[in-house]
DNA sequence: CGATTATTGTCACATTTTGATACAATGATA
DNA sequence: TATCATTGTATCAAAATGTGACAATAATCG
């Protein structure tokens, strides 16, 4: 699909996909003390969207989500979870699809695969942002990180989907130890704390946070220390699970 | 669909349903200190299954789930939540469907709606068992409650679906106050405790449980007391939310 | 009718967890 | 060497939880 003719051929014909079902991925990253989300912008439009895709007829649902993720980030072995299915009858967006395709010089037949109601299965992913290499899909020209608190208006019901993903992430952060998927292999306690504060959107007391997180016995202190500013250097840790 | 001819007509023709998508409902009830689940048994077979259904083309996903629930239990305004989507490629059960239909005297064309891969959206429901009036669907002859710990082998991947629903319920019981949906309007503290113990499959200390549950400020003590056995009568409570 | 018995509501005390704050140690810079 | 911001850890109070006990009560039984 590197050539535009391939793209045209792909989208103008009915592909071998499960009809009426799509996948949308909310891909979280963490950088500069900001929680970020990966968004696409479609060519020649002002339409921003979550990365998404469809399910091949001979493809597991979860594999389809992993494939979308790999296509956008270049990453495999990613933390990925379903969080909700969006299934209202009004999830049919013929006109928007038409405009997105028009922006790519593609005209759609009236009975096109996309000209239908879609049920969308929401997945959220937690990745080490520094390892990702965001890549736009064939229909979009950018694939970039956006600060969670500066998200533009998105197409379809994608703002709602994002909101639900965030709620799920906040709950998961408390109950499971998923947060470390957003950090590199090694990190300082302060970095974890900033991550928690950003996701939960609340201040935490440093000493208590440190005591708590260390008491869980899930971190291994690395011998080395960090070099940095004019003060005591923190230890580095790595996550060793439960 | 009371007549068998209607049933035949309904299933032999391609209905106006979303293709490749189904709904399965794990309906929990609580009775005699047992957690129960509603199961169907298909006519003239030994096939047990979770109640399920499909989505009408002009029907919200959640409405479809509510409809299935009402059809099986007679109840509206039910606590209902999605918990997982099951989407492996091998979720295609042509032969079993054929046998179920055969048990109802229906033959299926090779390209029948059901002769396809299905993605199934799992919902779990919590109901006051004493209010439900279980009703089999057109293809089954029984719709009954089964003790969670005595579940027969189910068709398709329904045992796995049930297991996942149970995990979700256990987590939800701790984090939200969903348990009260399984009880009648009024109940004793001991009845709540038995419910928690059964769902979580662990013993709880009576005095601590009572202190904890009362401290939440979610229960209103009813004036009346219960009559019962040769000992002090407990107070009745009702759930008043948060 | 009073004694017995099982269960309930509540309390008392120990232990653990959490909240709030303090302080010495450290690694650069001035 | 003094200064400064940050880190690791300690301290003490408050809240939550674990453990056990006890009086009150509603039937049943002798």
UniProtKB/TrEMBL annotation, chains A, B:
Gene3D superfamilies named in the record: Nucleoside Triphosphate Pyrophosphohydrolase, Winged helix-like DNA-binding domain superfamily/Winged helix DNA-binding domain
Residue ranges of domain Nudix hydrolase in the record: 18-170
InterPro entries: NUDIX_hydrolase-like_dom_sf (IPR015797), NUDIX_hydrolase_dom (IPR000086), WH-like_DNA-bd_sf (IPR036388), WH_DNA-bd_sf (IPR036390), WHD_NrtR (IPR054105)
SUPFAM superfamilies from the UniProt entry: Nudix, Winged helix' DNA-binding domain
Protein's name in the database: DNA mismatch repair protein MutT
